């Protein structure tokens, strides 16, 4: 399967950097389109891979999509509408039902969203292992900015300990204590061991957007961002760090080639 056939899909709603991975190298293409990257495009990439495998073709490429979405709320499969605090019929920001695991979350400007489309038959056929590896990517990404990311027993995603107050989502109100705040949401799905969806890491996200939902269905935990801890970190810095962490965790060698090639 050639690079061009892998990426010959409709990117009608894309705002995406496409990293086309080989076991021993990683090729890079970018799109300047600034619209929303739909789940349908991810599914088409997966279908291409599955069809190639069924045909007995060698599929040695993984694909990683790196996005910065316009504002959108998403609700996972089986997600509870009680976690949505607004009327979707009257809201300008879209609410999209997607087939990842998990509940409600927000994507928007200032957030680094990463969708690995990996063939787990080339890594490990274990979805629990994969979820933990995605969290490890985030932990390593944060470590590159001297931020200690942690896991919380029984909860997905990555968390940081932060001085907080009784106000929600970073809003001060006087009483300070230490608490674990969610800095990155993780939600995945797989079809025939090919993964989709991934993680959303808050960098310079407007955290007030989370006030309109119960993030991930967890009422008693606030969210935070890299900016609150390391205000000098840029979106590009974090994107680069995330790709480096993916290389480390999934043992992919990187080869940065033409970044202006059309998709």
UniProtKB/TrEMBL annotation:
Protein location: Mitochondrion
GO biological-process terms attached to the record: protein lipoylation
Pfam families listed in its UniProt record: LplA-B_cat
Biological pathway: Protein modification; protein lipoylation via endogenous pathway; protein N(6)-(lipoyl)lysine from octanoyl-[acyl-carrier-protein]: step 1/2
E.C. number: 2.3.1.181
Site annotation Lowers pKa of active site Cys: residues: 182
Sorted UniProt keywords: Acyltransferase, Transferase
Gene Ontology MF: a single term: lipoyl(octanoyl) transferase activity
Enzyme class: transferase
GO cellular component annotations of the record: mitochondrion
Domain BPL/LPL catalytic: 58-254
Binding site for substrate: 100-107, 185-187, 198-200
Active site: 216
Primary localization class, coarse: mitochondrion
HAMAP family (alphabetical): LipB
NCBIfam families (UniProt xref): lipB, PRK14345.1
Family: Belongs to the LipB family.
Protein name: lipoyl(octanoyl) transferase
Organism from which the protein derives: Peronospora destructor
């Amino acid at each position: 399967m050639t690079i061009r056939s892998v990426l010959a899909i409709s990117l009608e709603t894309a705002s995406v950097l496409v990293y086309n991975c080989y076991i021993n190298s990683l090729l890079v293409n970018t799109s300047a389109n600034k619209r929303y990257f739909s789940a349908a495009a991810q599914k088409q990439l997966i279908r291409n891979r599955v069809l190639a495998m069924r045909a007995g073709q060698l599929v040695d490429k993984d694909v990683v999509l790196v996005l910065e979405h316009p504002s959108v709320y998403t609700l996972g499969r089986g997600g509870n509408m009680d976690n949505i605090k607004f009327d979707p019929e009257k809201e300008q920001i879209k609410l999209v039902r997607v087939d990842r695991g998990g509940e409600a979350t927000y994507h928007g400007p200032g957030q680094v969203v990463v969708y690995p489309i990996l063939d787990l038959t080339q890594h490990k056929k274990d979805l629990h292992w994969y979820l933990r590896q995605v969290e490890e990517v985030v932990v390593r990404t944060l470590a590159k900015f001297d931020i200690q990311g942690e896991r919380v027993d029984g909860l997905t995603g990555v968390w940081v300990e932060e001085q907080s107050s009784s106000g929600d989502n970073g809003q001060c109100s006087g009483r300070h204590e230490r608490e674990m705040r969610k800095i990155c949401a993780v939600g995945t799905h797989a079809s025939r061991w090919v993964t989709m969806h991934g993680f959303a890491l808050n960098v310079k996200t407007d955290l007030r957007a989370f006030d309109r939902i119960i993030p991930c269905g967890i009422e008693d935990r606030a969210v935070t961002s890299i900016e609150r801890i390391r205000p000098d970190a840029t979106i590009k810095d974090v994107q680069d760090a995330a790709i480096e962490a993916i290389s480390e965790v999934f043992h992919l060698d990187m080869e940065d080639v033409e970044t202006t090639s059309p998709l």
